[in-house]
Amino acid sequence: MKLAGWGRYPVADCRLRAPRDADAITAALADGPLIARGAGRAYGDSAMSAANTLEMRHFNRMLAFDPDTGRLEAEAGVLLADIIASFLPRGWFPAVTPGTKFVSLGGMIAADVHGKNHHRDGTFGNFVDWIDVMGAEGQVRRCSRGENPDLFAWTLGGMGLTGVILRAAIRLRPVESGWIRQETRPAPDLDAAMAAFEATGDRTYSVAWLDCLARGRALGRSLLMLGEHALRADLPATLWRDPFGPPATPRGRVPLDLPGITLNRYSVGLFNAVHYRLGARRAGPVFEHWDRFFYPLDGILGWNRIYGRRGFVQFQCALPEPQAHRGLEALLRTVSDAGQGSFLAVLKKFGAETGRFSFPMPGYTLSLDFPVSTRTLRLMDQLDQITLDHGGRFYLAKDARMSAATLHASDDRADAFARMRRQAGHAGGFASMQSERLGL
Amino acid sequence: MSGGGAVLVLGGRSDIGLAVAHAFAARGHPVQLAARDPASLDPEKRDIELRHRVSVTLHEFDALAVETHEGFVGALPEIPAIAVCAVGLLGDDQADLEHDPAAARAVMRTNYEGPANVLGILANRFEARGSGTLIGISSVAGDRGRATNYIYGSAKAGFTAYLSGLRNRLAGKGVHVLTVLPGFVATKMTEGKDLSPRLTTDPVTLAEAVVRASDSGRNILYYKRIWALVMLVIRNIPEAVFKRTRI
Ligand SMILES: Cc1cc2nc3c(=O)[nH]c(=O)nc-3n(C[C@H](O)[C@H](O)[C@H](O)COP(=O)(O)OP(=O)(O)OC[C@H]3O[C@@H](n4cnc5c(N)ncnc54)[C@H](O)[C@@H]3O)c2cc1C
Ligand SMILES: NC(=O)c1ccc[n+]([C@@H]2O[C@H](COP(=O)([O-])OP(=O)(O)OC[C@H]3O[C@@H](n4cnc5c(N)ncnc54)[C@H](OP(=O)(O)O)[C@@H]3O)[C@@H](O)[C@H]2O)c1
User: Fold this and answer.
1) A243/chain B closest Cα distance in angstroms
2) Hey, which of A182, A426, B141, B146 has its CA 20 to 30 A from A87?
3) Are A56 and A21 in contact (CB under 8 A)?
4) Tell me, which fold does domain A179-409 have in CATH?
5) A42 and A99 in contact (C-beta within 8 Å)?
6) Chain-centroid distance, C-alpha B22
């Protein structure tokens, strides 16, 4: 059937099956290299194989929870949304979360995802205690920092290319409420935005929404959003009775909100619109519902369709600290000169590097998205080059079109990863369209 | 979580039945899962208990062993507030069933005799108690016999009529009966079949609709809703025309 990632580009005819047990995966291995697919939230072709794609949605049982430590054992197809729905009312929240809750546990581990707290807490992998991985011969291995440590390390961030993750144990973080004490700081330009990040390194969550249409001196104009899990004592009396707040709003019912505005660059424009809201909110601390703070786009079900049938592509790079400023400036200027304002532009400071092949490096990450066209694809080649010139690297979970040469030039770990795959026998069992395109 | 009485799911391993169990558990109802080989449902039991903090019990139940149904109901830890029957069997290709009376009988009995028998027993208990909801998962296939699946369809037609009769009998006695008529649902039963996405739902979405319909005291739920219209048209095609169609 026709399959695509979240960006709906590229689209390919894929043989897609949804195994119900481990035996069915073992059987599928006999049909040649396969790739596991979680919730399909990677933007490009990471979770696509024309010959053999296995959807993990039937592996969706929770196995055990320790209310003293917050450790959850669950099958890999369990959705983050379900973990939150079950455990937030008990005072636990994911230690690291991407910008959508409609991802699977396996997908978060395979991409070793980062969140708005990367500068403090690192990637999701830091909170994974063990994983059960099925290898190319069908054997299942328990992997942790102490047991099969190499397979453990390569599988975090390994994009499904070292085996199929069947189960995992992760640690959640204790929270006193479901509310986020949010502060928003406008930054008139890139210098100010970066200075604001540097000045707020002690905050738990930070992320900046960029106004991509800003030009000249206003280049990099943005809103820095800071957040802390609200303590009970912080909450206004009106929220005391139900400190964890209402559950996530039913799918598709949430009206377009803050970042939604950025989706339409012909509308008022992000900056003005938010400025307006800010004015209204300056009166005191703002308590934002967790669903709106972490997952503003999830309320708009199927928002990826607004780009039309040709789909869209994400560009996400990380730039090392020393070259980040010049690199970001060059990237933003190129985008703005091309007149190709990105609907969604996000800037974030990263902390230390973890993992053998995980994406984040100390410095800054910028993500942009563009509707697919020959023009934007050309623009992205330019952005690739600028990133390479500044020592940066690219996020595989967002990539749909980069060349193998670009990847290998950006990251010497890619060669090591590919070599490890051949030597350990993973290459014969697991392959995606992305791994083939990128020579992994 | 709102709490509530126990929900019995007959056919506790079925994709639809399990989804309905989750949907009720999420509202705080304890769950009784009844199936053949119930021990194999241990992971489901643990999963529901972990997610929803309700208790789950497992019970041996064979829809075809009708003589055991009275004992089965009697052995339940409590008479449930709500009973859902998701037992069903599509069987092999209809063309094969036509030449295999034993297999055809299994389809007829699994979709009609077994479910009607056990719900009949539960209906008496509910009636005596003066409360309860019976939910039968029948099928749009029962709305009109078609060449390609009339064996399954006729059994579902019988089940639909049985539910309608129960509803009529129990109206005013505190017992409600909900007939669920799914169109296409992506489950084990339909795996590998080429279903039109516009007419197909998934078990989780269907289960939400079932729980809402149960809450609101609805009598008949077609799902997806469009099926109500589709079946209205199909039921009204004159027989002289219908018999020559292939749909
Ligand atoms: C709106 C939006 C916001 C996002 N924000 C962020 C963000 O802030 N930070 C971030 O890091 N990412 C972010 N992402 C990317 C997303 O978190 C990752 O792509 C994640 O991997 C998606 O998980 P999934 O279950 O959908 O996996 P899929 O997209 O289905 O697969 C992704 C990769 O995981 C592998 N995989 C999936 N399941 C398994 C398994 N069981 N065993 C082995 N391999 C498996 C696949 O082979 C594939 O390589 C965002 C995506 C969207 C759509
Ligand atoms: N899927 C659709 O498109 C669709 C459409 C309309 C109606 N329906 C109806 O929806 C209901 C649920 O089906 P489903 O789609 O969820 O498919 P399913 O997963 O195949 O469920 C059918 C269930 O019936 C059980 N069953 C069969 N014979 C039994 C017996 N003798 N005793 C006890 N249990 C028995 C099976 O139990 P085991 O697991 O032990 O085999 C199975 O769990 C069925 O009544 C079906 O007819 C389905």
Assistant:
1) 15
2) A182
3) no
4) Alpha-Beta Plaits (3.30.70)
5) no
6) 15
Strand partners, B84: B9, B135
* First and final C-alpha spacing in chain B: 44
Residue B207, min C-alpha distance to chain A (Å): 15
DSSP string over A76-132: TT-BHHHHHHHHGGGTEEESS--S-S--BHHHHHHTT---TTHHHH--GGGGEEEEE
Same fold, A62-176 and A179-409: no
- Tell how far the Cα of A52 is from the centroid of ligand 2, in angstroms: 28
Residues pairing with B83 in the sheet: B8, B134
What pLDDT, in 10s, does the model give residues A311-363? Answer: 899 999 999 999 999 999 999 999 988 877 676 789 999 999 999 999 999 99
Contact A329, A341 (CB under 8 A): no
How far, in whole angstroms, is CA A360 from its chain's centroid?
11
d(CA B63, CA B69) in angstroms, rounded, equals: 8
Of all helices (H) and strands (E), which one includes residue A313? strand A312-320
**Lowest model confidence (mean pLDDT) among A297-306, B137-146, B190-199, B222-231:** A297-306
Q: What is the pTM of this model?
A: 0.94
In whole angstroms, give the CA distance from residue B212 to residue B218: 9
Tokens (6 digits) for A314: 């994400």
Which residues of chain A neighbour B50 with C-beta distances below 8 Å?
A: 62-65, 86
Q: How many domains does chain B have?
A: 1
Beta strands, E only, B56-164? 56-60, 82-85, 132-137
- Using beta carbons and an 8 Å cutoff, which residues of B are at the interface with A? 1, 26, 43-44, 46-47, 50-52, 188
Rounded to a whole number of angstroms, the distance from the CA of A88 to the nearest CA of chain B is: 11
- Flag whether the ipTM exceeds 0.90: yes
- CB distance B31 to B2 below 8 Å: no
Kindly state the tokens that stand for B56: 């789950």
CA torsion through residues A260, A84, A41, A126, sign: positive
Return the closest-CA partner of residue A300 out of A105, A107, A104, A99: A99
The CATH number that applies at residue B11 is 3.40.50.720
Are A197 and A208 contacting, i.e. CB atoms less than 8 angstroms apart? yes
Ligand 1 atom with the smallest distance to the CA of A56 is 41
Q: Which residue has the tokens 């060669």?
A: A415
B123: tokens are: 């209906």
Q: Do A63 and B50 touch (CB under 8 A)?
A: yes
A37 lines ligand 1 (CB under 6 A): yes
DSSP H or E run through B121: helix B114-129
Asked if pLDDT for residue A266 goes beyond 70, the answer is no
Strands A53-55 and A35-37 come out as: parallel
Q: Across the interface, do B51 and A86 touch by the CB < 8 Å criterion?
A: yes
Residue B2 lies in a domain: no
| Contacts across the A-B interface (CB distance below 8 Å) | 23
pLDDT bracket for residue A212 (50, 70, 90): confident
List the domain range (segments joined by +) for residue B70: 7-242
Residue nearest to atom 53 of ligand 1 (CA): A41
Structural domain spans, chain A: 62-176, 179-409
Distance B125 CA to ligand 2 centre (A): 24
Task: Classify domain A62-176 at the CATH topology level.
Answer: 3.30.465
DSSP calls for A9-33 = -S-EE--EE--SSHHHHHHHHTTS-
Residue count of chain B, please give it.
247
3-state helix/strand/coil string of B80-96: CCEEEECCCCCCCCHHH
